[in-house]
Design a protein that fits this description.
There is one protein chain. The chain is of the alpha/beta class. About 35% of the residues lie in helices and about 25% in strands. The protein has twelve helices and 15 strands. Strands 3, 4, 5, 6, 7, 14 and 15 form a seven-stranded mixed sheet that branches. Strands 10-9-8-11-12-13 form a six-stranded parallel sheet, sandwiched between helices. Helix 4 packs across helix 5 (about 145-155) and helix 7 runs parallel beside helix 8. The longest helix has 17 residues, at about 265-280. The mean pLDDT is about 95.
C-alpha cells in the first residue's frame, strides 16, 4: 500500500515522503481499516516536528483521525494506532474505540468530526458548563478547532463572538454563525468584546491559541467567567498571573480531551451519540474547506502547520468514495 512516512523530525513538507510499504498487521483487539478520508490536525504537524507529547518510533505515518471502512463494509470513525497513522491507504485501530460514522455526514466530514467536536463539547459543557444565553468567545474561530466550538456554542444557545485574523477568515466566521466577528489584525479584541457585552465581558472563552490570545482573554473575561485552555497553536505557552484570576473571580480550566479515553471512556461514546444527533438535525457540520488528493498530503499538513487554512483539510486516498 501507499503511505506518507516521516524518517526524521522537521517541517512536514520537508520530512514527509510518499512510499510503498506493507499493510499494517492488527494486534490483539485491533482491526484493519481501509481509509476513506483522513482529517489533518495540528498534532500531525507537531508529530512531524518531533514536538508532540507522543513520539512514535521512526519511521511513522502521521494522521490521527480518519473515516474508515471495516472488512464487512461499515463506515467508522477511528484514531489510528501510531506509528501507522491515517495518511495511508490502510490503518489499524482499536476495535473497542471505533465509532459509527453519522449518516448525515459524508466521509470527509465524518473524518473531521471526532477530535475537534469532542474537544469542543467537553470543553464547553463538561469543563466550562456553558449555559443558554451566555456569551462565548472563540479564538481562531475560522480554524478547524475554533469552527467546531462556534457551531457547538450556537447549538447551546450562546451568543458567540469569533476572533479571527484577516478578512477572509472573518467572512468564514460569519458564515459559521458568529454573532460578532473581531479581526485581531485591525481591531482591539478587548474593546470589541466589552462593547458587544455591554462592558460585562465573555462568560466562556475557548482558547486553542495561547500567547497573546490568552493575555487578551484575561482582560475581557466576565465576573465568574471561565477560560478553557485547549492548546497553544501560537507556539507561546502563557504563564498566567493567578492573582489576576483571584481579583476578577474567573476560572482557568485545562482540557486534555485524550485523557477521557483512559479515565472515562463511556463519556466519549455518550458525546458521540450527542454529536450524531446534532449532525442529523443540522446543528453541526464540519467545515471542510478542501478535499486534498492523497499525493498532496505533505503540502496540506504544512499549510495547517503554518496556520494559513480555514476549516478542515481532509485527505482523500485514490479510489475512496468521497
Amino acid at each position: 500500500m501507499q503511505a506518507w512516512q516521516v524518517h526524521r523530525s522537521g517541517e512536514p513538507s520537508e520530512v514527509m515522503r510518499l512510499q510503498e510499504v506493507d499493510r499494517p498487521t492488527p494486534g490483539e483487539g485491533q482491526v484493519l481499516l481501509r481509509v476513506r478520508a483522513a482529517n489533518i490536525n495540528f498534532p500531525d504537524a507537531l508529530l512531524c516536528r518531533g514536538l508532540y507529547q507522543i513520539k512514535p518510533p521512526l519511521p511513522f505515518t502521521p494522521g490521527v483521525e480518519i473515516c474508515g471502512e471495516t472488512e464487512d463494509g461499515r463506515r467508522v470513525i477511528a484514531n489510528p494506532a501510531l506509528p501507522h497513522g491515517g495518511l495511508a491507504e490502510y490503518v489499524v485501530a482499536d476495535e473497542a474505540a471505533l465509532l459509527p460514522a453519522p449518516d448525515a455526514l459524508d466521509d470527509a466530514e465524518a473524518a473531521a468530526l471526532h477530535i475537534g467536536y469532542q474537544t469542543g463539547w467537553f470543553g464547553l459543557h463538561r469543563r466550562a458548563g456553558l449555559k443558554e444565553g451566555e456569551t462565548l468567545l472563540v479564538h481562531a474561530a475560522a480554524g478547524g478547532v475554533g469552527s467546531a466550538a462556534v457551531q457547538l456554542g450556537k447549538a447551546a444557545g450562546a451568543k458567540v463572538i469569533g476572533v479571527v485574523g484577516g478578512p477572509q477568515k472573518a467572512a468564514v466566521a460569519r458564515e459559521l454563525g458568529c454573532d460578532v466577528v473581531v479581526d485581531r489584525r485591525t481591531e482591539d479584541i478587548v474593546a470589541a468584546v466589552k462593547e458587544a457585552t455591554g462592558g460585562r465581558g465573555a462568560d466562556v472563552i475557548y482558547d486553542p491559541v495561547g500567547g497573546d490570545a490568552y493575555a487578551k482573554s484575561a482582560k475581557c473575561v466576565a465576573f465568574e467567567g471561565r477560560i478553557v485552555i485547549v492548546g497553544f497553536a501560537s507556539g507561546d505557552i502563557p504563564a498566567p498571573a493567578l492573582n489576576h484570576a483571584l481579583v476578577k473571580n474567573y476560572s482557568i480550566m485545562g482540557l486534555h480531551w485524550g485523557l477521557y479515553a483512559r479515565k472515562d471512556p463511556a463519556s466519549i461514546a455518550h458525546c458521540h451519540r450527542t454529536l450524531t444527533e446534532y449532525a442529523a438535525k443540522g446543528l453541526i457540520k464540519p467545515l471542510v474547506s478542501e478535499r486534498v488528493p492523497f499525493k498532496d498530503a505533505a503540502d496540506a499538513v504544512q499549510r495547517v502547520a503554518d496556520g494559513t487554512t480555514t476549516g478542515r483539510l481532509v485527505v482523500v486516498p485514490e479510489g475512496a468514495n468521497r
